[in-house]
Every structure is written in C-alpha cells, then in structure tokens.
Amino acid sequence: MATVSFRNVNKVYPDGFHAVHDLNLEVKEGEFLVLVGPSGCGKSTTLRMLAGLEEISSGEIAIEDRVVNAIEPGDRDIAMVFQNYALYPHMSVRENLAFGLKMRRTPKQEIAERTAEVASTLGIESLLDRRPRELSGGQRQRVALGRAIVRQPKVFLFDEPLSNLDAKLRVQMRAEIASLHHRLKTTMVYVTHDQVEAMTLGERIVIMNHGRIQQAAAPLELYRRPANRFVAGFIGSPPMNFLRGTLKDSMFQSEGMSIQLANVSNEALSHEGNVWLGFRAEDLVLNSDGPSLPEVELEVVEQMGHESIGYFTLLGERHSIRLPATSEVNPGSRIVPRLRPAGWHLFADDEEGCRFARENETAQV
Amino acid sequence: MVSEPKRITFLRHAVLLLFVAISVYPALNVLSISLRPGDQLKTTDLSIIPDNWTFDSYIALFTEQPFLRWLANSLLVSFAVTVTGVALAAMGGYALSRFRFVGRQALMLSILTTQMFPATMLLLPLYILVAKLNLMNTFLGLLVFYVSTALPFCVWQMKGFYDTISPSLEEAARVDGCSRMVAFRRVILPLAAPGLVITALFSFMTAWSEYIVAAQVLQDRDMFTLPLGVKSFQASMSTQWGLYAAAAILVSVPVVIVFIVLSKYLVSGMTVGAVKE
User: What is the pLDDT of residue B273?
Assistant: First the structure.
C-alpha cells in the first residue's frame, strides 16, 4: 500500500501538444481513485506517466515519498492492467502470471504458490496450461488481472480494462474489481472514459478535460455539486439538461420563458452576463408545485421497466425527464414539467462555467 | 453450392499440370544428366533415370574436385550473412518501428530507395568500396557486399513485422520488471519469429546462390563458393556437363533442408490472443 503524489506535473509532446497541465493530485493510501474524462483529456497520459511508460516533461511524481521520475517502470513496484490485456501470447497462462515474479528472481517455490493462489482467487486454475489465444475475452481479462495481483504491488494501475468486454461481462468484472479492492485494500488508480464505471468503482473520482483536473471528489459529491458545467454535463445519465439565459432578482429568463428560483446566492445574483440553468432528468416532475417550464411535447419515451425517460425539445435543445413507470405517457403526449425546489444548478456562461452554490446548499447534502 | 461442370475441372487440372511440367522438367533433366555415364551426356533419351545410370559424376565431384571445400566456403559465407543480416535487421527494424527520432522518415525512405536500383548497377560502386577496404579475395569482402544488399529489404520486412505487434506487450513486460532490451529479447523477438525466419531465408538465399558478385571478389579457386565452383566446370573449350549437373543437384539440397527446417516457424497468427484491439 502506498500514497501517490503528482506535483505540478506537465506533459508536452514533441509536436507541442500539451496533454497534461500542471497536475497536482494526492492519492491516499489504499484509495480507489478513478480518472475519468472524454478521450484526449489526458487521463491515460497521466496514468502512463505514473507507470513510467511516458516521460514527464516537468514536475514530479512520487510513490510513497519516493520520487519516481527517473525510475524504470519495473522498479516502481506497480502493476498495470492494459485495455487490450497485453498477455504474452507465446507463454501459457501460468507463465504469463509468473513472468513478473521470475523477472524479480522470486524463488521458484514461492512463484508456484503465489500463482496457484491467484489462479484460485480468480477461478482460472483450469486455464493455467492454455495459451492466451485459447481463452475468451473475459478469461483473458481475468488473466491480465491475475498477472497484476500476483506481483503484490504497492499500486495497481488500470487503463480502461473493461472497455473491450461486452456489456454483461463488463458489469460482472466491474463487481470483481470492486471486491478485489475491498479484499486487497491496495492503492488503485483506474482510468476510464465511462462515467458509470467511474461512479460505481471510485471512492474518489478525478474528472479531467483538456489536460486539466475539473473536479476531484467523491461520486455523490460530483453528482450533487458539480464544480462546473463540464462536470455537470459529464456525470450522470442521461446528462444534465441546460438552458441559457439571464438572471434577474432570482428569476431565470430565457426567450420569453421565466422560472422563479429560490435560494439563489448573492454570488449568482451579482454575476454579470448570461448564466446556464442546469437540471437533471430526475429534477423534473409532473405533479408538484415547483416552478414550471412551458408545456412541451414528448418526442421519445424510453421504457426502462422501473422508470421511463422522456425526451422533449425546449429552446432548440433536447432535454430529458425521468418519469415513474406508472405514468401513462407516450411519444406525442403533452406535459408541463416542473422543477423540484432544490433541483437546479446555476453556472456562469464563460469558459470555465463555474457553478454558483445555492444559499442553503451545504445543509441539504 | 453448385458443383462446377466436369469440363471446367478437367481444364483447370490440365492447365495446372502443364505448368507443373514446365517447372519440374528442367530440374528432372538436370537430375537425369547427373546420373548419366560419361559417354551419354547429350543423349536425347527421355527417360529420367537413364539406362546404366551411375553415380560417377557425384563421386568425381568429391574425389577429383574441391567440391567439399566450396561447400564449406558457401556454408560459411551464407551463415555469416544470415546471422549478420538477421541480427542487424532485427534491431534496425525494431528501432524504426518503435522509436520516433529525427530523420526517421528520411532514413526509411532512403533505405527503400536503395531497393529501386538493380543490384548489378550497384556492382561497380560496391566493388570499388570493397577494393578500397582491401577486402578483395576475402570472405569478409563478400559478406560486406551481401549484407549491404540484403539488409534494406530485411530491415523493412522486420519493421513491418514489429508494427503488427502491439507496443503494450513491451509495456507490460517493462512494468513486469524487464529493461527495454530484456523486453525486446524475451517478449518481442519470440513473437517476431516468423519475420526472423523470412529474413533469415532471404539472407541465406541472397548469399547461397549469388554468382556475379562472388565472381568479382573471389579469385582463388580454393576460395570459390559453390556457384563459382559449378561455373568453373564450364570452360571455353568444353563443359563437364556431368559434374555440372551433379553439382547443381547437390547445391540445391541445403536450400531444401533449410526451407524444411524453418518452414514450421512460418506460421501466421503467432500473436493471436495477445491483445484485443
């Protein structure tokens, strides 16, 4: 177990592309940290710099107080699970598992014991003498996990390990990785572009965009109090709905539509210029006394079984509303969505799109 | 599936048989000549194994001619070229495939460009080079010649092969505790075996059957490689066709053996199961 620190870390590629900007991040001992963001946001580069597979342009990375900038990947005491498994095809599963230990001159007896133990943990004992090409996708991923576990490293790194699996297997492996962390309690850094994976696995999530950290917080904190419009739009499925307009004495106005908001902070009220009003699909309800949106027509209704998600267009933008399974609506139904009292967020309409906290917000969460 | 008409099947086999005959006939003819007694060399008899066939030509090769010496020379030169060529191409191709450095593109293009000149055109400049290096009439001179003509193709061949091996395999090996060199040796090289075999075969063949360059560089009859030795049976006045044919048959034997030994490595799909793209 170990802590990991990024201190003012930058990555600039030879072609001038600045992939990671001045990254500062502390990963606590035993923490499951997820780096998430759209492709090209710098999350994989960050992980690869930690692994030692990518040089650091400036700044320093430390694993348990030891600066590792100039240390070979093999000497960092880390293990990594790759997106494409990266199993050695010319070796059997047993040899794949043992390779890292062999490279570290672990005694043969110990290699055999540890390999057997990991194989039984992951339920791959019967595959030990097979070659990777004789395994299914899920089995390969298990072997890749085993190869990391058997080393008993200080830090586990995962680079989108589940993105090549089909949906059902992904859910299953996700649960397995979670229970693995619960059992081993080793520091884990996990990269994914899938926000559902991030929300379900991470103890803390770091959202990145354009090489910068947008927010680092616990999953629910991100969901309930996104730091800016990017985070708000990235986390949550369906994504948060946004309306652009102006704020006048707690009244949000946009193209002939006005919504009375309560508990708007002074910071938001004194903001000059446009704002974005954001609300999630579940923050819209049909029967309440909250401020109402104009009457709209549902265009698509997705039946999920336990609930339905309806889509409608307002001010030229597609919006979503979460409806109880019992509500009898169809495409074409006309509804008047209402906003739950504390079910909205205000964001500045500028590049950063910072969120203005509501007046009584801390008390609610 | 509808089976094709018998007429088409027949035609197809007829065409195939014709071409098999065309390619096999000269080899059979050489075999036949090598087995003929000295007084029937130019007979028009069509039998493959001639009447009163004899191994005289073969025996003469080993007893009256320095054939074994030439064989040793050829094997030495060919193996040296193969080992040098494979070693250099394995590492050169790897560098071109994996590292991004200044001049990489230009280097690759220039390597490719050398392949556009016919080998005979390079004969004179390479001859001068070898002469100036004082390597005339030495195997080293021949080695320089052969390796430098075979290498461009081999490097490209290996680069192309490495390109198909996912870099994450080396990365996994490095995380597992290998240095770059060890990762190359223990993970990448075994996977590149088919590429190495093709490169080895190509290098070996380049040296084994080469005549023109060898004829310029080597002058002592004792230093001759097999193609030179075989050609020496053809004099201005008369040609010893029996020896010539027997030698030709024997020259082809090692090549066949090398092919058979290496062919099991020429399997595709070595890297299947390594990664999922």
Answer: 52
Task: Give the pLDDT band (50/70/90) at residue B268.
Answer: low
Average pLDDT estimate for B188-192:
91
Domains annotated on chain B, with CATH: 6-54 (no CATH), 66-263 (1.10.3720.10)
CA separation for the pair A114, A251 (Å, rounded)? 65
Work out the angle between the directed axes of helices A167-184 and A137-149 (0-180°, nearest 10).
20
Mean of pLDDT over chain B:
87
Residues of chain A with pLDDT under 70: 1, 362-365
Q: What is the pLDDT averaged over residues B148-170?
A: 91
* CATH no., domain A4-224: 3.40.50.300
Domain limits of chain A? 4-224, 229-364
Taking contacts as CB-CB distances below 8 angstroms, the residues of chain A near B277 are: 84
Rounded to the nearest angstrom, the minimum Cα separation between A149 and chain B is 12
CB contact under 8 Å between B169 and A133, yes or no, is no
The residues, ordered by sequence, that sit 6+ positions from B141 with a Cβ below 8 Å of its Cβ are: B130, B133, B135, B217
> Using a CB-CB distance cutoff of 8 angstroms, which residues of chain A are in contact with residue B100?
14
Contact B274 A14 (CB under 8 A): no
Task: Report the distance separating Cα B21 and Cα B28, nearest Å.
Answer: 10
Please give the residue of chain B at the shortest CA–CA distance from A74.
B177
How confident is the model at residue A248, as a pLDDT? 86
Domain spanning A229-364: which CATH class is it, in words?
mainly beta
